[in-house]
Amino acid sequence: MPLIDPSILDCALYVYPSEGAAQQGVSAGGSGFLVGIPAPLADWWHIYAVTNKHVLDGGHHVLRINTKNGGFDTITTTPDAWTTLPDDDVAVLPLEVADKFHVNFIPAEMFMPEHNQGTKELGIGDDAVLIGRLITHEGRQRNKPIARFGSIAMLADADEPIRISEDKAQVGYLIDCRSLSGASGSAVLGFRVPHRGNMMMIGASLPVLLGIDCAHLPFWTPVCEKRDRRAALPDMWAESNSGIAVVVPAWRIQAALDQGHLVDERRREDEQIVRDHGTSVTEPTVDPSDSNPSNRSAESPASDSATRRSLGGEGGEGKGQEKG
C-alpha cells in the first residue's frame, strides 16, 4: 500500500445539513474536497469545492473546513450556487478560501484522463486510497479525515454504466475499498503498484485523482425467522455492504468544471488578475513530478475567487479573499 503524505488529508472538507450541525459535529452529511485550476499567472489558482450531487440533494450545504488556529470554521452555501451534471453524481462550487483556513487542494493536472494511457495508466489491482470522513469519528474540535485503502476492481467504461439504484446508473470505477455512510464525496486517489507480473518497478507511481466516491454496491439478503433460508419472510430484505465502492471518474469532475458559465467566470477573473498583477501570461510553476500537493501554498489573496499559491511556502495553508 502507498505511504500517504499527511498533507493530502488537508484537501478534504466536511458537508453538514446546518451551521449548528457543523458546530456540534453531528453524524450527518457527507465529504468533499478541494481542487485547483491554474490561472494565467504563475502560482495563481482557481479553487473549487467538490462533492456529490446526492449530498446536496439531501439538504447538506454547509462546508466545515479546518483553520490555522487548530479549530474549524464553516461556509454556508446555497444549492443553486453549485454546478452539477445531469448524468453524474458530481457538484462543484467556486470557493474563496480565506486566510484563516488551513487547506490544500488537488491540482487539475493530477486528474485521471478518460483515456487510460501514458504516465497515468492504471489497471485492475492497482492501489486506490479514499480520503474523507469517518462519520463515527470525524473530529469534534477539528476535521479528522481518514484514509481507507483498497484496489481498483473494475475500470470505468462509458458504455457500461453501473446501476447504483433502481432509477440511476453511473459511469464509474469499482473500487475494492469499503465505502460507508458519510464517505460520499471523498476524493479517491490511484497509485500504480510497484510490482506487476514478473516486472519489478522502482517504487509506486505518483498519485492521480481517480475520482469521487459516490456509492457502495449493496448485498441484499432475505430476512429469516430462524437460521434457515427456507424460513425467509416474504418481501423482507436486509442490506449489507459488499465492500465495493463506486467512484465517479475525475474526467466527469473536469466536465463539470468546464461548464460554460464556469469557463467564462475563470476567463473574466484571469483577465482581471493579469490587469492587476502582470501583463504576461505564464504557465503555473507546478512540478508534475511532485506528489505532495502541500507544496502549493498561499502567499497573498487574488482577485475575486482566484487564489494565489506559491511553491516553496509553508504547505497546506490556503489564502484567498474572505467572504463578506
Task: Report on this structure.
- There is one protein chain.
- This protein is mainly beta.
- It has one domain (9-311): Thrombin, subunit H.
- 11% of the residues lie in helices and 39% in strands.
- It has 4 helices and 20 strands.
- The protein has helices at residues 19-24, 53-57, 250-257, 260-277, and strands spanning 12-16, 30-38, 44-51, 62-66, 72-76, 83-85, 88-94, 106-107, 127-132, 146-154, 162-165, 168-170, 173-176, 187-191, 195-196, 199-200, 208-224, 232-249, 296-301, 306-311.
- Strands 1, 2, 3, 4, 5, 6, 7, 8, 19 and 20 form a 10-stranded mixed sheet that branches. Strands 9-10-13-18-17-14 form a 6-stranded antiparallel beta barrel. Strands 11-12 form a two-stranded antiparallel sheet.
- A hairpin with a 2-residue loop joins strand 11 (162-165) and strand 12.
- The radius of gyration is 20 Å and the shape is globular.
- Residues 282-289, 293-306 and 308-324 have low confidence and may be disordered.
What is the secondary structure topology, with strand pairs?
Elements: E1 12-16, H1 19-24, E2 30-38, E3 44-51, H2 53-57, E4 62-66, E5 72-76, E6 83-85, E7 88-94, E8 106-107, E9 127-132, E10 146-154, E11 162-165, E12 168-170, E13 173-176, E14 187-191, E15 195-196, E16 199-200, E17 208-224, E18 232-249, H3 250-257, H4 260-277, E19 296-301, E20 306-311
Parallel strand pairs: 2-8
Antiparallel strand pairs: 1-2, 1-4, 2-3, 3-7, 3-20, 4-5, 6-7, 9-10, 9-14, 10-13, 11-12, 13-18, 14-17, 15-16, 17-18, 19-20
